[in-house]
Amino acid sequence: MTPRLRMLGVKKSFGATHALRNVNLDVSPGEVHALIGENGAGKSTLMKILSGAYTPDAGKIELDGREFTSTNPWHARRSGIAMIYQELNLAPHLTVEENILLGDEPATFGWIHRSQRRQMAREALAELRHENIPLSAPVRSRPIAEQQVVEIARALVGKSKILIMDEPTSSLTEVDTKNLFAVIARLRERGVSIIYISHFLEECKQVSDRYTVLRDGESVGTGEMASADLHDIIRLMVGREIKDIYPRTPHRLGKPVLELRAVAGETKPRCVDLLLREGEILGIAGLVGAGRTETLRACFGLDRLRSGSVWVDSREQTHRTPKQRLREGIGLLSENRKEEGLMLNRTLAENLTITRHGPIAKFGVISNRRQNQVTMDWMQRLDVRARGPTQQISELSGGNQQKVAFGRLLHHNARVLLLDEPTRGVDVGSKVQIYQLMGQLAAEGKAIVFVSSYLAELLGVCDTIGVMCRGVLSEIRPVSEWTEHSIISVAIGHTEAQNSR
Amino acid sequence: MKNRSADSPDRTTKIRTLLNVLGPFLGLAFVIGLFSLSNEVRPYFLTGANFKIILIQTVIVATSALGMTMIIVSGGIDLSAGSMVALTSVASATLLVKGYSPSAAVVLTVLAGGCLGLVNGIAIAGFRMMPFIVTLGMMGIARGTAKWLAGNQTVNPPETPINNIMGLVDPIHLFPLPPGVWITIGLAVLMAVVMRQTIFGRYIFAIGSNESTARLCGIRVRLQKLIIYAVAGSFFGLAGLMQLSRLTQGDPTAAIGLELDIIAAVVIGGASLSGGAGSILGSMIGALIMAVLRNGSNQMGWPTYMQEIIIGVVIILAVGLDRLRQRRNNI
Ligand SMILES: Nc1ncnc2c1ncn2[C@@H]1O[C@H](COP(=O)(O)OP(=O)(O)OP(=O)(O)O)[C@@H](O)[C@H]1O
Ligand SMILES: [Mg+2]
Known about the structure:
The structure holds two protein chains of two kinds. Chain A is of the alpha/beta class. Chain A has three domains: 5-238, Rossmann fold, CATH 3.40.50; 244-329 and 414-501, Rossmann fold (3-Layer(aba) Sandwich); 347-412, no CATH class. Chain A contains 18 helices and 25 strands. In chain A, strands 15, 18, 21, 22, 23, 24 and 25 form a seven-stranded mixed beta sheet that branches. In chain A, strands 6-9-10-3-11-12 form a six-stranded mixed beta sheet, sandwiched between helices. In chain A, helix 6 links the parallel strand 9 and strand 10. By secondary structure, chain B is mostly helical. Chain B has one domain: ABC transporter involved in vitamin B12 uptake, BtuC, CATH 1.10.3470. The two termini of chain B are 29 Å apart. The interface between A and B is large, with 48 and 41 residues. Bound molecules: adenosine-5'-triphosphate and magnesium ion (MG). Magnesium ion binds at residues 43-44, 86, 166, 397-398 of chain A.
């Protein structure tokens, strides 16, 4: 059988950065192919070449046995290649419906058939079990997870032969992920080839038939998923052994540093009580839309509080601006690095140091030498792959961008860290580094609120966990009293599960 | 370490920055070269005396561009700059007529510009209105006030040292340059340092690049914007003084459409209208390019409508080139 897609000896550099040195990839019809590699290994670049966003420097691409040069994204889409980008690519002011069919509007001579468009959008969402997303709401008004669903729905309309998914689940919940897998299974039966990129290796294992591992821009291994061992794959991608995925650094809980009492926001959260102590890693689980992000935002002063109070170091400090919170030593890592987390067209150094100029400036004047020195130190500690402190942040791979955003809190020397999905889009090796770092911070007496949709990591690194359901935070209990199952039942609102334990 | 960047520490970035900086200079060299091609014009165009005139013609746009660069980098726009220049020049002429000392007139004029800018800032930052609309309104308000204040005619102040700011002492040689040129150069150096090397400048770029991030990082976005518009207003006030010095009278109908020249200069200099990018050096070169274009076309004897067309084309070309550069940088 001729393969659906064959990429041979693909190369691509950006200036002095060799993003792809030599990549081969084969995908058959009706196959789910996992593309695995560390942050900055070149996965997104390879897929952007296939979808026509970049042109390769060298190499050959064959589609159904015929040579294929994709000149632009539109051409690629006409040739049956659809892509779900890692960074959401939606038009924020347009409605959900308009976004889903953007560029594919059913039309005669430019006249859009609205009812047909509505129908198609509804079907795409129904396929993902998300009929509940209002079609006529502007996309920016929806939570990021729903935006992700919209992004996926967009790739489902039209007849694609190859569907590329670049970290589609990075902000989906377990339930949505399950739905997505069901969709993938259906598509596969229809003969659609799927290239699946994810840093969740268990997911890759579960969903894909074969895999290819990229390391430093080269394909270093490929094989059948069924017979593969995850440890071997990790070794291939990282080049070393990782033994302990959830390392624990011993740490002790101290004085209370942050307390929320019956906090309620404009719409969400509805009622949150929380006590965070020095050296504590407090996990917050919950479904998307439960109000976890809003809780952090309200606490940090980004959103208005409607009622309730916030206590820092046992003193009431309820209504504060982000600037005051930062001064109190509280830092927030946003879940949405593109919209809120980073200044994309500025340099790595600027992004890292923007909240604290003390060490790099005198009398308001910044010393470039000091700034670059400080940035280089953090780049090394966090293993950020970039050309240097003055590289523009948008040129970094997704995971490396995330590390810079995290690095900002460390540079700020925050003692209370509000982390919203801190490991989103971060590779296995670096995740372990981040967990380790969190452990170290806790050991130094810093306190962490850790919001995540990935239950395994919550159970792995937290001391205590609370679960949010429809704007209300459950009782916070030590991690040993939780299981994945009990967390999910509280998250979906099965209160009897809470009682029966 | 795993940092495979070690082999080429930041070289590409440096080269790219260099190219970005060099771009406007190349444009300047290109327009100067263009006018030097013609055998008839060259003996007049390529002389110290003419460059002195070009520099003097640049000063008003350049001074205003210092303020406009801040505004555009922060993601805003100011359409009222031209009217503010006219209003402040009329105001200072009126002050001089009323018998104020020249130094008091200077201070008050710059302050007046600052206050007008502050009003813009309050509407934009305080009431979260669109800069485009607010400054469009201010454009009408300032122009109308200027005409009102002047009684719909020019105001002729007595002879004062203010006229020397832009005075052409020795019209044959390039040096000495009039004080206005030195003032502008000095302020440009100061502002370049402020934008590039200070925390205040960082915050301007941060707000323009991503306002939500700026807020998240504890920057007082509204206060910062207020300051930006007020400081820019004082630059427009200073430009108004220079305008007065050049015309030796306060003319309420002067500087019509000047804001477009200023914005063009800033954009030619590499600033992005969506914010987060731009430089003082670039804007200054951009202002020079605009002045050379006008001066050259005059020397060539081209009618004004030709000049307008040419300048329009140049602006579009400059911005188009910039887009191309950006596209190559990142998709
Ligand atoms: N536009 C660009 N300009 C310069 N360098 C770039 C550009 N895009 C990507 N790179 C570099 O190419 C390399 C590969 O990046 P890519 O985005 O393909 O990684 P990735 O495997 O998708 O990583 P992640 O898992 O973090 O998303 C990185 O070192 C990145 O810095
Ligand atoms: Mg990627």
